[in-house]
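Model: Ready when you are.
Researcher: Fold this.
Model:
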Amino acid sequence: MTARASLLLPSGVCYDLHSLRVGATTPAMFHPARDFEGLIAKGSPEEQLLAQIDFERLPRHIAIIMDGNGRWAGMRSLPRVAGHRAGIAAVRDVVEASARLGCQVLTLYAFSVENWKRPRREVDTLMGLLREYLKKELDTLQTNNIAFNVIGRMDELSPTIQRELQEGMEATRGNTGLLFNIALSYGGRAEIVDAVNRILAERPASGSPRAPVDEAAFSRYLYTAGQPDPDLLIRTSGELRISNFLLWQIAYAEIWVTETLWPDFRKRELLQAIVDYQKRERRYGRVAGSEPEPVGLSPGKVTV
């Protein structure tokens, strides 16, 4: 894949006002057959879908609500945790496929602020699977030039998990391919509240006039500062809701819902979502057929 400047922030926090990466563009993938060698079988449905994709119009940022693990397990008379474990294979497949496609950012919704209400055993299992994934997949992330990043309230995680996440981010920080965000202890409303509190904390307490906060300035305080907003939001398991995920960033995202449960989701579904996405006309408030305008990155910058 073509090298590009990394969007990953150099600091250890989820956002950094002084280290934004803006203006990066999705690289064209000139040899899809070569880049997918060993990942897609000849003559398979995946190969047929791949042939339909315009690599000049890939979604820059794909966000996925991974839903259906519990239902998948229940259909097989297995405990819920078995569904979470089965979902790891889907994560592995989708992350690697997104990297080889040449996508710029992939964000997976792994654990919400509301998920802390689940039974302790289930929460512990989820955190254990996260640690297991990092240990087993770090080499794969490096091989595929993937930068690993965490968005959410990391301070709510255990010190051990925080340390291992930081180690994973540091180990892949120099990679310039796909930026893989994993949302942990994340909530869209919580993110907006955190942004507001950071703005308030940085503003002087004096009675001097203060400049108004516009959308561009506000976006610089989000966990995803410096990253393009999602172009495509995927939800598995057929549910028609966004579940408090990237509420600010998905304002103009195209939404694609599949009945497929997350443990069964693979590159075929990902490719189908991209094919369907490219068939849609994105208007951004314009009338049909008018010339598209530049789309803003989250800090308010624009690309063509």
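Researcher: Now this one.
Model:
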Amino acid sequence: MSGNGGPGRAGRALQIPSALVRNRRMRSAFRGFRSAIPLCLALLVGCVEQDADKPTAEDLAAAKQNILTTAPTPKYAVNADLDGKLVYLGLDVDHIPIEPGKDVTLTHYWKLVASPGQDWKTFTHLNGGGGKSFINADHAPVKGKYPVGAWKAGEIIRDQHTVRLPANWAYPSVEVYVGLWRGGTRMPVRAGPHDAEGRVVAATVPVTAKPSAPEPRKRYVARMATKPPKIDGKLDDAAWAAAPSTGAFVNTMTGGAVPQKTEAKLLWDKKFLYIGIENEDADVWAKLDKRDDKLWTEEADEIMIDADGNGRTYIELQVAPNGNVFDTYLPERRKYEDTVDPKLKPFAWNSKMVAKVKVDGTLNKREDQDKGWTAELAIPLEDVKGMDDKSAVVLPPAPGHVWRINMFRMDVPQGKPQQAAAWSPPLIGDFHALDRFGELVFGDAQGVVPPPAPVPAIAKEKAGGGAASPLTAASDRKATAAAKAAGASKKK
């Protein structure tokens, strides 16, 4: 889902050594982007919740080395005023240009005009490609030794942390944004460079990125079910036995293997999209029991569906090992129902899906050894429109039609940090990377996808009578929608 970085602005995110990140979803301090890479973090991503403990005497002694007595002269001078309490003086970067796949140290400088007050936390966001890539680089200030609540008027704080851009970073620069947040609020920026989301624009740093050849998009052909499966979490119907597996989910950041296997199967009919997910899990647990609780902070399976493939509107569904569900409609990337109707709260939209879970072990008995759990979902096709009554998606789909989809699994083993896996790994710290969604192709009962429909004769005439290119599944879908709209207008 999302987190804050301020509030509700980011999606699932980076692997971090404790708890998860997602807009409204990060539970512990980001101790360095480098240590995060091998671990799976999800959630994305707005701001990471940092420890609120007061600094010890030992912490304060260590922090003193980063309380400056003279004003610095940062490479990227900013001087942004945050609510009259702090001034973000600027940023130093130890290696310019930044090299993807290698560590780089960012040094932030904060000048205190007044004490900020309790519970404020810093955030650091890295964006690339005009927001196409998002990395949450939140961390506890001064290596966790000096939280914002302890900062005093007159101090100049030097805060250093290490980040690493993914090796496949394809953009010539990275934008660095900073600020303070508390609960659902970001501290307002009164003066200085800032964006519409209340983030201080710290710098645009050059990157020695070389555009890489695009990877083939993940693709799954779903068979049409001649008999709907019984939704009981068991996945023992004949239709599931015949359905192909997606293959094992992989690390969301690296695309590599993860410790506990997750794989999925999909089916469809004229009313529902069916998804079955099998999760190996030695420690099955889930405590949150209210609908739309922050399931991403514990253990959950998650599906995001962009049915019309517009790269903008989509739905997000989650189910936990205790059968609890989370669902939301997003009219734009990492925006929620309140942006459609201010009277609504985020996550107000409810799916009509049926979700059942089967645990192979003992739920919430942390000291024993479990085998895993399965989730079985029946998602009404109409649900994929969310709150968009004008969606161009054709329902029910026909064999050959294509939706965009991604699937994730969040896992928190006993005594270990949260891990995240994906069918199509985003490879950046954001589950809501819509450009990384895979393709769900609708096949017939045998999984056969028909060839593209022939080009109508009228299209050939407009092209001058020559041979025309065949329609793709996506263009065929749009053509079908346009034809339906035209028919409707004639009736009127």
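Researcher: Key takeaway?
Model: Residues 50-206 form a domain with the Immunoglobulin-like fold (CATH 2.60.40).
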